[in-house]
């Protein structure tokens, strides 16, 4: 994944650490309709592991994918120490619409309040970031194709007058509904297509197992086709399904099923190959001074020989099928 510039990173950190997003006394006393939030819950909220002086810490904001897992663990260890072993599940499964008993006299109710508080604070940070910086962030990452499916463009489109723009989604790799404290952590913000983010992935818990960066899965997948059935499939499917991280990706985004629908790619390569079989390329070579048959082949199959991985939809499918059919 391409990194954004240091300058932009600093600007964003400053934005997230501004006073509005500081869990100061006022925020901690926010009216949830409860009589009193217990002191130890207030203390817990004041000493969140991913914050520093009530603000998101730069370590959290700039944390790497591996470190995000550590942030999650550190937080849950401190939560479990204070509120018992089932507090992790309560936290993960509580949504902003859940009701809380007003007495707040059990650990469970207090954990729900903690979740609601963090959810509210970080949702608002993310929503405002999306509005203010979303477009710039997506452009800066330099990604053109959805890293989850590799079959949709995710570049920002703007009208000539600059009055309207269409932007792709920004997916939270570790879902914000479960881990709201990673809502604005840079390595957790993945520009992606709407299809993958809102239809396929949703709140799927990628913490348990996942491929990161997501496009890495296409280095592992080997596409093949059945010449009689005219069907595309993943050759090493069983091997991939035996690894939890690949299984998660293949099942979440239905990669094999999705790619099987792209028979137009298969047809196009087969047709071209038939049209320019070896003998014809040799004929062309004879009539073209200075070019070898290999040169001619490269010209004929230019669109497969010189693909730009960063801009070519279905890149791996095209690469594998071309290799099998033509090379
Ligand atoms: Zn996608």
Walk me through what this model shows.
The protein is mainly α and 327 residues long. The protein has two domains: 6-201, no CATH class; 214-325, no CATH class. It has helices at 6-16, 25-28, 39-46, 58-61, 65-83, 87-93, 107-141, 194-201, 217-220, 237-241, 244-253, 255-260, 263-275, 278-287, 293-300, 302-305, 315-325; strands at residues 51-52, 55-56, 157-158, 165-166, 169-172, 189-192, 223-226, 231-234. It has a two-stranded antiparallel sheet with strand order 1-2. It has a two-stranded antiparallel sheet with strand order 3-4. A two-stranded antiparallel ribbon has the order 5-6. A hairpin with a 6-residue loop joins strand 3 (157-158) and strand 4 (165-166). The two termini are 31 Å apart. The mean pLDDT is 92. It binds zinc ion. Zinc ion is lined by residues 146, 148-149, 152, 192-193, 195-196. This is HNH nuclease domain-containing protein. It comes from Malaciobacter canalis.
Concise summary:
This is HNH nuclease domain-containing protein. The protein has 327 residues and is mainly α.
């Amino acid at each position: 994944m391409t990194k954004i510039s240091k300058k932009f990173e600093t600007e964003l950190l400053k934005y997230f650490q501004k006073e509005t997003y500081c869990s100061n006394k006022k925020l901690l006393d926010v009216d949830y309709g409860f009589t009193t939030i217990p002191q130890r819950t207030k203390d817990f909220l004041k000493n969140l592991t991913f914050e520093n002086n009530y603000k998101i810490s730069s370590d959290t904001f700039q944390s790497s994918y591996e470190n995000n897992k550590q942030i999650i663990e550190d937080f849950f260890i401190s939560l479990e120490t204070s509120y018992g072993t089932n507090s992790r599940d309560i936290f993960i499964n509580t949504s902003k619409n859940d009701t809380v008993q007003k007495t707040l006299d059990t650990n469970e109710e207090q954990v729900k309040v903690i979740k609601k508080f963090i959810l509210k604070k970080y949702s608002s940070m993310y929503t405002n970031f999306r509005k203010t910086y979303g477009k710039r962030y997506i452009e800066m990452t330099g990604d053109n194709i959805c890293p989850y499916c590799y079959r949709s463009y995710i570049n920002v489109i703007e009208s000539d007058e600059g009055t309207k723009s269409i932007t792709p989604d920004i997916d939270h790799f570790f879902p914000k509904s479960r881990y709201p404290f990673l809502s604005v952590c840079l390595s957790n913000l993945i520009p992606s297509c709407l299809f993958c983010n809102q239809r396929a992935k949703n709140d799927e818990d990628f913490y348990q197992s996942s491929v990161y960066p997501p496009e890495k899965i296409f280095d592992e997948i080997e596409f093949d086709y059945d010449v009689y059935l005219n069907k595309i499939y993943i050759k090493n499917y069983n091997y991939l399904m035996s690894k939890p991280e690949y299984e998660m990706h293949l099942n979440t985004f239905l990669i094999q099923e999705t790619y099987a629908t792209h028979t137009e790619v298969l047809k196009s390569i087969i047709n071209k190959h038939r049209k320019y079989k070896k003998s014809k390329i040799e004929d062309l070579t004879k009539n073209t001074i200075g070019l070898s048959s290999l040169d001619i082949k490269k010209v004929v199959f230019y669109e497969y020989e010189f693909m730009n991985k960063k801009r070519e939809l279905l890149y791996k499918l095209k690469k594998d099928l071309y290799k099998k059919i033509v090379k």
